[in-house]
Amino acid sequence: MTEQIERITKYENIFREAKHLIGELSSGCTEGYIEGNTEGCTEGYGSNHGANSATLRTLISELEAYYASDVWKQDFADDEAGLLPSDLKRGVLSEDGIYNLLEEYSELTGETESGKPSEKTESSEPSEKNESGKPAEKAESRELMAELTDDQGSDDMTKEQYEALFMEMHPGYFERDYVRAVPDDEPASEMMLALSGFDEGSYTKTLDKEVTFGYYEGGIDDLLKAVAKVVPHWTQFFGEDSRVYCGFVNGEIASFCQIEDFGEHRIGDVKWKIGGPGCVGTLPEYRNRGIGLSMVRNVTKILKEESYDHSYIHYTYETDWYGKLGYKTFLQWNGKGFI
């Protein structure tokens, strides 16, 4: 156990330092730094840029190797089983943590995981960042409420009403052991998108021609093998009747998610039909290409076409990633409850 805790702590520190450096490099200059083009960058950027970018590349390589290993999968499984100390910092074991950090790195540098410049082109739409260019920090609950209602056209819902909605969808949630283990200083987020305001053009990615998307129509065994490569214990949530949407590369599963129906819920005088993507994952060999977020965008569009009022993301730390599609945080919680 001591060796495992030391390992997780090591990679947690690498994870946090990489996030910090990505923020610094984004703040200093968001384009062209790999090529040495510092035009438009902040004063003093050049003095630290070389060292920071080299350090970041090394950290990213270490995280990639850990995330693709069986060791990470075992650490993740032990965390889910409640075998790790409750006070252990372990953002590196979140379901999408490293994956989405690698996405941010790829978008910042224009590199694939091999370190070579990518030939893929991004949309000219900027990612959601604050005025400094860094990912927006978590806001207080009251501000999150205002952001959701003002920007997404939802009715004037209070924090208490959102909490009631959450508990209606997840009864007994805070009695679960794995929920109680969430540290006080690492709250998870719940996100929502009012589909009346969804813009499918908010995120576009030019993908290789062999990448396609669609409902999964193959055998359950092949699907479960793909899911197990991402998060082994998720296989229990997939069955013959699951509605699964995938990204494919040459016909093979590259990414997957369920299209979930959370039913209709009344909050005051308002009734919402809620659905959402669940168990979102991309296989290690297909990461950092934009396939996963393109898949989520497509699922969000499907929900809108099927007359859902809201699309819902449950239990995530990847608010910036989903925020690129317009999802907004409406609640945060830790092992002690709502915050």
Query: What string gives the helices and strands in order?
Result: HHHHHHHEEHEEEHEHEE
User: What average pLDDT do the residues reach?
Assistant: 80
- Helical/strand content category: alpha+beta
Sheet with the most strands, sense and barrel status: 8 strands, mixed
The rough form would be described as: globular
Radius of gyration: 20 Å
- Name the poorly predicted regions: 28-49, 112-155
User: What is the total tally of β strands?
Assistant: 8
Percentage of β-strand residues: 15-25%
* Helix count from the secondary structure assignment: 10
Strand order of the largest sheet: 2-3-4-5-6-1-7-8
Distance between the termini: 31 Å
Q: What share of the residues lie within helices? A: 25-40%
